[in-house]
Here is the input.
Amino acid sequence: MGPVIVREQFRGDGIGEKLMIKGMDYLKSRGVKSIELDAVFLALSLYRRLGFKDKHLSYRFKKVSSGGDVRVQRFDISRTDKIIELDRKLTGLGRSKHLRSFCIEFSDSIYTITEDNLLAYGMVRERNGGSYAIGPLVAENSSLAERLLLGIMAEYPQKQILIGPLEPQREFIAFLRGLGFLHNIPALRMYYGEKRNYHKHVYGIIAAEKG
Here is the structure.
């Protein structure tokens, strides 16, 4: 779920809580078993009161790319089903509707690593201010995620690169820090209902509410 935004002059009147309850009731009525969100720390008491539990930190790293010479493949839109297949295999999630939409929207800025089979993919989208956000970035292992990131950075020299890894990806986060990536205060990924551990192969999320 997200984002949840209330105008500053109306905060403290319970509007955000009412919106959350309405949204949660809707999702539960649709048979949803697991709800997640990325919480700012100021709102933790609200989400815990609503029954959300802590999962792990959700980071936002950034760095101006200095380019590089690592090369990765540009996405071929005819291979959309391969991205959906890999994503389902590695995350256990059914995200085909979103991924088909992303593959069309970002068709000129999707990068992959393919040997005999597709091993990793990363989507890049331009953000306000001329920065470039990577996500989803999904890979078989951390080494492939690192290689894909370096290849994407080579495509965007002198551009600010944004990426949002989750706390369990400690090896990849250490790699980011080694490259000089910096982050601000992280958010806290929280869940309601079933705890879904899909993050093992997810090295960058597209947005807090989309995964």
Summary: The first strand starts at residue 34 and ends at 39. Residues 36 and 98 are 17 Å apart (CA to CA).
